[in-house]
Predict the 3D structure of the following.
Amino acid sequence: MNKLDENIHRICLIEDDEILGEALVDRFEIEGFSYDWFRRGKEALVPLSHKRYSVVLSDINLPDISGQALFEGLVAEGNKLPPFVFITGYGAIDDAVRLLKLGAEDYLTKPFDVGKLMQKLHSLCARGIPANASTQELGISRAMRQIAETMPRLAGNAGTVLITGESGVGKERVAQALHRARDPEGKRPFVAVNCGAITETLIESELFGYERGAFTGAAKERKGVFEQADGGTLFLDEIGEMPLAMQVRLLRAIQERSIVRVGGERVIPLDLKLVCATNQDLRIMVEQGRFREDLYYRINVIHIPIAPLRERKEDILWLASIFLEEFARRDNGVLHQLDPIAQQALLNYPWPGNVRELRHCLERATILHGGQLITEAMLFPKAGHAPEVSEAGPETLAEFLRACERTYITNVLEQNGGRIADSANALGISRKNLWEKMKKLGLEVVSPE
């Protein structure tokens, strides 16, 4: 069984010999390596293109494709590869030498000393880039690595950051990465608030706090999120949902770097990093008079746009492996694995709910199915497979995504008994946003809760 390991280094083992493979993975666990074991070369092609490995250990003689053909194909694609170590018999040393000329790290002839192999793997892992190094903290796609690379510069800048992207793309994850870059020791607070989830009558006191006796029920003073985040980072999600009246007070707080509690007079100075996020186009909202232009320019000092998951497919299996490890750690259970067809199904699906939908999909599969291996039918149980284009004729990408989004929202509503508030919370959007989506998608719109 491939149990979860806390070690950040992951080995890709490509070996069809069950006895040798079992011996190696048992030793990997003893040595503290995480691993993926593939019995055929073609099974490893997709993971090698989308996951981060510290070392690849591959037999040259495989049942479906030779290790040489596998390596040559990956080299031809031009991707940056981890160190490759090949296993070969005495009769195939010439093949191993050719692979070294192509850029392979080393080769071992059978029978080999497992202890010396482990020493080599540790050496290669120490020399290489760890699997969760800072540049891979957000993803392995070019777009997310570029964002990760800007974190050190942004951390030392006092400007307000605006993160934009569709619901579920991981805006808060980026905000947390920025906070960690500013506070690597984790001593400063990170406070997140969803502006769309707070009622208009309470948002002022939630943001700025209140003094004792400020209103009925205010039995004692309370700090708002601005004060709670003092010295650290304040993340205001769904900033586009903030009422116009509150936008004025927010603008003043940003400009003056201070706040006054509701019912109070004392000016409270603040020292914090403000990060805002939205899935809406604030420029259009400004033109429509729904968002203040001066506030837009004040929060849009540094703009970080996040591409939807369907446009950075390299991150899908990388994220899937992170979520599966998280679930195994949380539930103290066996680490689930995706079979090759399931991996391809994840790559083919457009993910209208982005990273959040991917997480829910995998979590549902691990909860409902006790086996270690996750299949395509477990991920997409209703159809038995990922959605496909209609046989009636080709539909546009917009139509396909609309159908996927409609199905996704319908499923979430069913899971939450039709309750708008709970469904909106599960989707990571405001109730107002959910009502608007339901109306646009032709779903029955219920009365606000």
Observations:
- Residues 136-305 form a domain with the Rossmann fold fold (CATH 3.40.50.300).
- Confidence is low (pLDDT under 50) at residues 1-7, 129-135, 389-394.
- The first helix runs from residue 18 to 31.
- The CA atoms of residues 283 and 297 lie 10 Å apart.
